[in-house]
Each structure stands twice: as C-alpha cells, then as structure tokens.
Amino acid sequence: MKVAAVIPAAGFGHRLRSSVPKPFIRIAGKPLLAHTLLNLQSAFSFADTVVATAPRLVRRTLVLLKECGLDRKVRVVGGGRTRAESVRNAVFRVSPSCEWILVHDAARPLVDPSLVARLLKAAKSSGAALCALPATATVKDVKTGRVRGTLDRRNIFLAQTPQVFRKKFLLERYQKLGKKALRATDEAALFDGSRVRTAVVNGEVRNIKITTPDDLRLFQFYLNGKR
Ligand code: CTP
Ligand code: MG
Predict the structure, then answer these.
(1) Where are the beta strands (DSSP E) in 81-139?
(2) Residue 159 Cα, ligand 2 centroid: separation in angstroms?
(3) Strand locations in 45-187 (E)
C-alpha cells in the first residue's frame, strides 16, 4: 500500500492560550509536532509525508524537522484558513505515486501504531476509514441554552484522526463539493451522503487532541506513564 501522510498543523492553538503556536510548544523537551511526526513515522513506512503549517511558520517548521531528523522524509506546505483547507493544500502536493492518504492532526501526539494498522486494513476494503470512540455520556441536543431532545447514544461516535482514504475518492469529493469542502471539520465528512461508506474502527481514549491547557497536562501524564 503506497500511503502518504498528510498532517494539518497550520492552526495557532487559540484555546491553549499560549504565546507559542501550538505545534511548537515543547513537552518533555520536544515540540508537539515532533512528538506526532516521530510517533507516526514509527507506525508505518509512508511513501510521502506532507505537513501543512501557517505560511509565516514554514521556515520555522523546516528547522523543527531538521532538529528531529525528519527533514529528508517530511515536506512542508503552507496551510489555509481552515483545517480542511490546510489538508486540501497538502493533499494536492502529495506524490502522484501514492494511492492512499492518511490524514492525522498534528495536535494528536499519542497516535498508536496498531491503530494505524487497523485503519489501513479497514480502508483497503471500503476506500475510507476513520477511528472513533462510542459516546459514553448522555448526549443532549441543545439550542440557545434550551434542551431540544436527547440523542440515542448508541448511534453517537466521536471521530478522531488518523483517517484513511483512497486518494482518487478524496479528489473526487473535492471536485464535487467545491468550496463547501473547506467547511468540513474532518475529511470523513466529505463522504457523508456519498456512495463511499466510511468504515469505523475503534479509536483510543489516549489518542487525545491537545486543545486546552488541561489536555497538555493529560499528555504529560500519559508520557510519564510510558517511561
Ligand atoms: N489546523 C490547520 N489549519 C487551520 C486550522 C487548524 O492545519 N487553519 C490544524 C491544527 O494545527 C491542528 C488540527 O488542525 O493540528 C486540529 O485543529 P485544532 O485542534 O482546532 O487546532 P487549532 O486550530 O490550532 O486550535 P484552536 O482552534 O484552539 O485555535
Ligand atoms: Mg481550530
């Protein structure tokens, strides 16, 4: 399977309220983006890896890659205004020989090799696969501070990355959806209502997305447990 990894890393991380852009925040001596890339590279031998960063941070990202010895394996492109646009920019720059795209958020540093293997296997038969956690809470439909109803939790899953797609299918969806594709909050959403049925594999609780200062503390906690 010739797979390209696409890593959206062009967000600033406003909810972290840090003066340093989120991909460059150091945890246990390494920038967040380096944690994610090194973990991902140890999970699978990707034929190509493209990171999308904020255009003004491209040079800084190249320095980071050199620092963690990934400058020969990983390329950098300028990201867009939304996550979806950043991913699309990177997908368009992937080596033409890659038939598969694995999209993974820079903000999820604890991606596990076995999860990548399960996703690739699932995508091979369906053309698209994501990982997700079944909802454990009771889920309310709320509008303007008032409950409109209670959703059937058995049908609710919280999507994570990595997500894997046949590149041809992803390009078809970009073509079909045009600008609408730039509002999607994950790539699997591009396949909603299409003939491709995205396979769901079990996500992992520790595959957290670093969003708030609490998530940074949780990441540190998991790292300590590993040592
Ligand atoms: N991302 C991106 N391009 C954007 C916005 C986000 O590539 N224009 C990336 C982020 O870098 C991150 C992933 O998408 O790896 C998930 O986004 P999120 O967790 O929301 O990160 P940020 O957008 O950086 O955080 P915030 O929304 O708090 O500013
Ligand atoms: Mg964001």
Answers:
(1) 100-103, 128-134
(2) 15
(3) 48-53, 74-78, 100-103, 128-134, 140-143, 146-150, 157-166
Q: For residues 147 and 141, is the Cβ–Cβ distance under 8 A?
A: yes
Cα 88 to Cα 136: distance, rounded to the nearest angstrom: 32
What is the token pair recorded at 111?
Answer: 């991606």
Report whether pLDDT(224) > 60: yes
Cis peptide preceding 21, ω within 30 of 0: no
Domains of the chain and any CATH numbers: 3-226 (3.90.550.10)
Please give all residues whose beta carbon lies within 6 A of any atom in ligand 1, as ranges.
8-15, 22, 52, 79-83, 86, 105-107, 209, 211
Return the CA Rg of the chain.
17
Helix (H) or strand (E) holding 123: helix 113-126
CA angle 73, 225, 24 (to 5 degrees): 40
pTM above 0.85, yes or no: yes
Tens of pLDDT, residues 70-109: 999 999 999 999 999 999 999 999 999 999 999 999 999 9
Centroid of ligand 2 to alpha carbon of 15 (angstroms): 8
Residue 149, token pair as written in the block: 């109803």
Query: What's at 140, amino acid-wise?
Result: K
pLDDT 10s digits, 111-136: 999 999 999 999 999 999 999 999 99
